[in-house]
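SEVERITY: medium
COMPONENT: batch folding queue
REPORTER: lab tech (J.R.)

DESCRIPTION
The queue accepted two submissions in a row. Attaching both inputs and their returned C-alpha cells so the on-call engineer can compare them side by side.

ATTACHMENT 1
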Amino acid sequence: MLLSITAGLVNNENLSKKFKAMALIDYMRSKGKVPEAGTLKQREPGSHAPDKGPQEEAPPEGEEAVEQKMRTNEVTSMAAFKNIRLTQEEENEAYLELSEFLLDKSLCVLSGQTLEFVTDKDSVRVLFCQTKSKMLCLRYEEAAEDLHHLFTNVD
C-alpha cells in the first residue's frame, strides 16, 4: 500500500493502481476472503503449454493488407477471484490499519497522506488518527482543538 501511495506522489498512476491492487489482494487474503496463493486445488494444472495455433501465412498484399487487423498490446482479462471485491468500508479499514501502523512507528506525515484515501473522514477513528498525527508533528494547538472537538461534538 505504501508503494501505491509513493507511486501516486510521483504521478505514476498505472504503477500506483498496480501496487494498490496487489496490496488489497494481500489484505483480502489476510481476512480470509480470498484463498492463499497456491492452495486452491484444480483438476488441471495452473500452467499450460502454449497452444501452437495455425501457422500464419504470408502477409497479403494490396487492399487485403489494409483490412488486416492492427496488433496492439491491449488484453481483455477476466475478473479475478470470482469477482470478489472489498467494499468501501473494508477498503477504508485497510487504509486506517496502515495509518495506525505508521503512527505507531512515528511516521506522522506519511500517515496523514494515507488518511487522505479514506472516504469516511468524519469517523472517530479517522479523527483520532489525524489528531495523533498532529501531535507527533508537534502541532499541539491544532491537536488540542481536534481533541476538544472529539470529546464534545462526536456522539
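ATTACHMENT 2
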Amino acid sequence: MPEEDLELDDDENEPNPNEAKKYERLLNKANKQQAEAEARALAAERKLVVAEAGLRLSPVQLNALSAVHDGEWTAESLAQTATDLGFVKAPEEPQTDPQPDLSAYQRLNQAAQGGQEAPKEDMLAAIQNAQNENDVLTIMEKLGRSTTRTAQ
C-alpha cells in the first residue's frame, strides 16, 4: 500500500469539526431541556406538598417560603415555616369546657324547668332570709327542687 493511501485513511478517522459542534449543541440543548423538566417537576412537587399542608399562599409567598425553608419538604415542616414567616396564623388550641358534665346537667335542668333558671343570688338571698326549715323547703319546692318534708 502506498503511503498516500494511509494518510487518506487517517483523515477519514478524524472527527469532522462541524459535526462535533453539531453534537455538542444537541447535547447542550438536551441538558437544558432536562434541567427545565427537573425544575418543573420540583416546583410541582413543592406545590403539592404546600397543598397537602393546607396552605393557601400567593406566588410571592411561595417563592419566599421556598427560599427560606430549610430541611425536608413535609406538610408539617412547611406549615411551621409558613407560620414562622407570618403567612398563616398559628393553630389555636381548642377551648374546652372545664366542666362539660355540669353545663350539660344545667342545660337539662333548665329544659326540665321550662328554660328558666332562678338567679343564684336570688335563691341564696331567699334561703338566707328564711325564718325556719319549712320556709327553706317551700323555697326549694318553688324552684322545682325535690324536698322531703319531715313531720314536726
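NOTES FROM REPORTER
DSSP finds seven helices and no strands in the chain.
No errors were logged for either attachment.
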